[in-house]
Amino acid sequence: DLINEAWFNAVRGNHEDMLIKAYQDPERWYEQWMRNGGTWSQTLDQETLGAYAERLSKLPLAISVGEGETRFNVFHAEFFGSDESLDQSEYSDPVREQILWGRSLVRDASKKDLHSGLSKSFCGHTPLQKPAKIGSHIYLDTGCGYPNKLGKLTIVNPAAMRFYSV
């Protein structure tokens, strides 16, 4: 329900993308979505699921806030490029997949220079024990979706770079 609140801003991630694809092309995507967290939707009728897919399809892949030194970006997984290239409204399929699914930077921090000119950028997708900064990327996913493993929700005050985990 938060997605419909005027004060709430969200970006599309891989799970939102899977819901959209599962609705549009169930033959190809439904089983993958079910294996990756989609089972919550099994009690929904097609009309409701379609409304969710429609709403989620309007989410941006990236959000930028502020300008200059105060600018920060929000996207789901990772992005290799500059602020200027992130500000494009359309992305190639490989870049789109990187924003939704990428894990190469968090798995190999030596790639940190592949995003020269990118302001600090908050992302998640890969659960970690605690927030981590690799180059311009600040990973915030501390596993709130996995309560039996990591199990913390982390938020950040971007101006103060202060993290809060519960």
Describe the structure.
Helix content is 30%, strand content 15%. It has 6 helices and 7 strands; from the N terminus they run H-H-H-E-E-H-H-H-E-E-E-E-E. The chain has helices at 14-24, 26-35, 46-57, 83-86, 93-101, 104-107, and strands at residues 62-65, 72-75, 121-123, 132-134, 137-139, 154-157, 162-165. Strands 1-2-3-5-4 form a 5-stranded mixed sheet, with no helix packed on it. The model has no long low-confidence stretch (mean pLDDT 92).
Q: What portion of residues belong to β-strands? A: 15-25%
CA-CA gap between termini: 21 Å
Structural class: alpha/beta
State the share of residues found in helices, binned by percent. Answer: 25-40%
Silhouette: globular
Largest sheet: 5 strands, mixed
Helical segment count: 6
For the biggest β-sheet, the strand order reads 1-2-3-5-4
Low-confidence stretches: none
DSSP summary, beta strand count: 7
The Cα radius of gyration reads 16 Å
Report mean pLDDT, rounded to a whole number.
92
